[in-house]
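Appendix B. Chain record.
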Amino acid sequence: MATAEPRKHLIYFGDPMCSWCYGFEPVLTALTDHFGERLPIGIVLGGLRAGTVRALTLMEKDEIRNHWKHVHEASGQPFDHSFFDRGRFVYDTEPGCRAVVVVRRTSLDGGRGYFRDLQRAFYAKGQNITKTDVLAEIATHHGLTRDEFQLAFEAPDAREETLRDFMMAQENGIQGYPTLIAGTMTDGYQVICHGYRPIDGLIEGLEMWLAGATPDDEGAVRH
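Structure tokens predicted for this chain:
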């Protein structure tokens, strides 16, 4: 009896509080709209600044402001700059990542919509997505009640699953976000893009890959 050929898919390594991931979001949306179920996209949370406990300095805020400027210029994504008026902000990305892990378990899109909504809340609306109540409110638009979300969010297994995502990114040598890889669990993976890139040529290249061609990769990545 012949075995089914392993299904090709994409794995997206990102963090909802990574500005270049926010810039890349329209590209991911375009890929989802074009390919649909023909090329599923799974999310692995990277933990860009996970576990940070120190508040941002003025110099660090200036660096972030400069990043946002470049992201806006490259992608056109809108930013709410009221973020820089906060007197004290601890840029800990672990809560946002863990929240995506919680929603990913039950959502039909693997947490993609929630990930996108967290980005918009933080970057375009100036909301503090390091706060559990903010994360819970956004989760109510993705099939969970506040109580369901908060119970799952505080559970040890959510922290453990989030840590496994961070470890997977590290073990695969992912050193920057966003990173998009393509492949199968049996044949391995190749990097499609490491860092931001526009949609130009990406759909065409992936169509060729689905048809059997080797993608124009930046290196092999194991799973």
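Further analysis of this model is presented in Appendix C.
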